[in-house]
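URGENT: need a sanity check before tomorrow's submission.

F., can you look over the Lipoprotein record below? I want to be sure the sequence and structure line up before it goes out.
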Amino acid sequence: MRLLRIVFYLFAATLCLTTFSGCSGEDSSSETLYPQKVSPEITSFFETHLPVSGNSDCFFKPFKKETDTVEVHIVNSMAELQQLCYAPVELPQIDFSKSILVIGWKEVPNLGYEVDTQKLLVSPTFAELYIATKPLGPCYPAFSHMFFWGFYPKTDVEKVKVHVKLNHQN
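Structure tokens as predicted:
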């Protein structure tokens, strides 16, 4: 009887492991993409116009939104970038033939965060952007926009779900 119970438990454990191992939430055909390096001119442009805190002077018109709001755009051409830019600024020349721009912001619970790392998980059925932050300094009891942007290899992504992990220590 004891041997039968052990065999049953081993069978149940094996069944659980094989059943749930395929439920990681990631498609087996998914690919992880990391931001590509871009020219200093392009980096300078986005760092200038998408500040660590405050509002952007040409992207994402400032207005109050719901707490924990996120806005993200996938840009495939200079025309799409110009359409997203609401102020008359000179955009850098960007070659979109081999890359896409993922650009957006998330409302975070204080002024003390900036993007540390990001990666884009792409599969035939979904795309998810994972962002990890690092603190800038003292935290203030306010909400602010944390802007993010990155150039990724060309893909057919149309929508992206954004996940942000707020790290409270360096």
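My own read: The beta strands are 31-33, 70-75, 99-108, 113-122, 127-135, 144-153, 161-165. The chain has one domain: 28-165. If you see anything odd, call me.
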